[in-house]
């Protein structure tokens, strides 16, 4: 977390932070940064209309608003994320049925299909994130969920390896910008502290995806598959859930706080104010700013985050490989391996809730330290998995369940910080696309580490994960911490009240003072921006 989170969001507002007209003389006297209204935060027009009518929030009102916004937004994004990962996991569970025989799959072909998903994911980054910058977020998500619903249903018609490759490629292409989109939404509505504390809860929905998906697969194992094979029934059920998700998004998902129908006008203004004060960044901006894109690519923090995701995600095929590993151990039926995967997912959810409670109870504890601590179960579990003798089936099973789901907490903490440590809407989107590209590269490589010739122990894959994913990657997170901590120390020593506000000039040439966060400056341009750590 950060120094920016130590100040109360309901403290008395500085007089010059409220939106009001200002003379050219005052602008020159204070040296305010001036921008045109088209380059300002997309919510600024709404703020100008209602800001003067809305009093400052009280402590009691803020507690109520925080609960309302957090429950609503987290319920939405967690559900979407759960279904997203159910869609991703369908192929893994389908291997327990007749998928291999019906489509002519082998272990290597299965790995190739997982690789092609991330090729599509990588290709979809540029168009997907560009549309995220240009389109209303809620409507864009409706289009994405509709598309992936169609792809899931079409998978039921796949008859061969080539068909599965095409479908998985397009599923990855469509899903490329969904996670960044939900991350943007959380950043629009939640304060820095709230976003950090709820990040593990958000990711618990994909760590715990084995629970609902496992029980669905468990039920399908008992279904009558005389006329339609089990894996197709499984896909139809998941596709139905995806369709329901599309309807929920259509009617409930907000574009930004200014357009959030579940909030009153007063609550929308309060939400905008508290988010801008704690994050120091704009909420939304629909103009592409080339200089922000260039800055994102030149910023060494962007490259460190990219390298982190490249190394850490080399382990990401482990959850998709899990059911095959269970079967390869011997002594586990499809039914029992399904139940074990449910238990493994349950452990991951408990771990996520533990780290979320940690951040809530100890808000000053740096998330960049916690990400390293959260990888210890995976690090230890992986070492045990390669060290135990092959005949110790129970020990190997326990080690696999410890290693497989736990590293997701580390991933989501870093993905959240990847966005919150950048300001400027275009810079955020650019950095998101950049790190997701390297995330894709890692996931293209990751399935290929699990080669048939290395079965059943797969030592090379485990060694790569232990050294690069669970040791070097968290160290990179600590390097980012020390760089940003140094920047914060320098800024806190030099910041002035004039740095906290800026001036926007509208079409009539009238200039008015706003919170500097409304200027949509980057973190390097805005010297009042304090990095969350």
From TrEMBL:
Phosphoprotein listed as a keyword: no
Major localisation: membrane
Cell location: Membrane
Pfam families given in the database record: MFS_1 (PF07690)
GO function term, MF aspect, one: cysteine transmembrane transporter activity
Feature: compositional bias, Basic and acidic residues: 11-28
Keywords: Membrane, Transmembrane, Transmembrane helix, Transport
Bias kind Low complexity: ranges: 1-10
Signal peptide limits: none
Stretch list, region Disordered: 1-30
Regions crossing the membrane: 69-86, 137-157, 169-189, 201-221, 233-253, 339-361, 368-390, 396-417, 429-450, 462-484
Lipid bilayer topology: Multi-pass membrane protein
Coiled coil location: none
InterPro entries reported for this sequence: MFS (IPR011701), MFS_trans_sf (IPR036259)
This protein's GO CC annotations: membrane
PANTHER family noted in UniProt: HIGH AFFINITY CYSTEINE TRANSPORTER, PERMEASE-RELATED
Protein name stated in the entry: Major facilitator superfamily (MFS) profile domain-containing protein
Organism classification: Eukaryota, Fungi, Dikarya, Ascomycota, Saccharomycotina
């Amino acid at each position: 977390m950060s120094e920016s989170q130590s100040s109360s969001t309901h403290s008395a507002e500085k007089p010059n932070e409220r939106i009001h007209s200002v003379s050219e003389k005052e602008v020159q006297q204070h040296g305010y940064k001036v921008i045109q209204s088209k380059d300002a935060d997309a919510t600024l027009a709404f703020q100008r209309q209602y800001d003067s009518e809305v009093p400052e929030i009280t402590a009691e009102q803020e507690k109520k608003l925080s609960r309302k916004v957090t429950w609503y937004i987290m319920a939405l994004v967690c559900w979407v994320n759960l279904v997203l990962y159910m869609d991703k996991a369908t192929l893994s569970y389908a291997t327990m049925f007749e998928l291999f025989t019906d489509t002519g799959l082998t272990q290597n072909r299965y790995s190739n299909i997982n690789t092609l998903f991330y090729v599509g994911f990588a290709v979809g980054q540029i168009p997907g994130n560009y549309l995220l910058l240009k389109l209303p977020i809620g409507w864009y998500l409706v289009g994405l969920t509709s598309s992936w619903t169609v792809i899931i249903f079409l998978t039921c018609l796949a008859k061969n390896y080539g068909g599965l490759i095409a479908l998985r490629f397009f599923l990855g292409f469509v899903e490329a910008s969904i996670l960044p989109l939900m991350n943007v939404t959380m950043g629009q509505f939640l304060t820095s502290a709230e976003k950090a504390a709820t990040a593990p809860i958000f990711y618990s929905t994909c760590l715990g995806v084995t629970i609902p998906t496992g029980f669905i697969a468990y039920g399908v194992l008992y279904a009558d598959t005389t006329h339609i094979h089990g894996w197709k029934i499984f896909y139809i059920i998941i596709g139905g859930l995806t369709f329901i998700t599309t309807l929920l998004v259509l009617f409930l998902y907000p574009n930004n706080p200014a357009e959030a129908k579940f909030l009153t006008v007063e609550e929308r203004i309060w939400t905008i104010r508290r988010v801008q004060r704690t994050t120091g960044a704009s909420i939304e901006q629909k103009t592409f700013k080339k200089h922000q894109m260039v800055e994102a690519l030149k910023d060494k923090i962007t490259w460190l985050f990219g390298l982190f995701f490249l190394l850490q995600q080399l382990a990401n095929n482990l959850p998709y490989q899990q059911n095959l590993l269970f079967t390869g151990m011997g002594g586990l039926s499809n039914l029992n391996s399904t139940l074990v995967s449910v238990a493994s997912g349950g452990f991951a959810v408990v771990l996520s809730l533990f780290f979320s409670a940690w951040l809530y109870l100890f808000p000053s504890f740096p998330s960049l330290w916690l990400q390293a601590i959260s990888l210890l179960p995976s690090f230890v579990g992986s070492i045990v998995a390669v060290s135990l003798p092959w005949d110790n089936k129970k020990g190997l099973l326990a080690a696999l369940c410890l290693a497989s789901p736990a590293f997701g907490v580390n991933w989501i903490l870093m993905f959240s910080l990847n966005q919150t440590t950048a300001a400027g809407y275009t810079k955020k989107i650019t950095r998101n696309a950049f790190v997701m590209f390297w995330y894709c590269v890692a996931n293209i490589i990751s399935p290929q580490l699990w080669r048939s010739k290395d079965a059943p122990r797969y030592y090379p894959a485990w060694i790569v994960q232990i050294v690069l994913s669970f040791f070097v990657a968290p160290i990179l997170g600590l390097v980012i911490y020390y760089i940003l901590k140094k920047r914060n120390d320098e800024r806190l020593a030099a910041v002035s009240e004039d740095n906290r506000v800026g001036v926007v000039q509208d079409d009539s040439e009238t200039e008015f003072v706003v919170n500097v966060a409304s200027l949509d400056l980057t973190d390097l341009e805005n010297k009042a921006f304090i990095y969350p750590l």
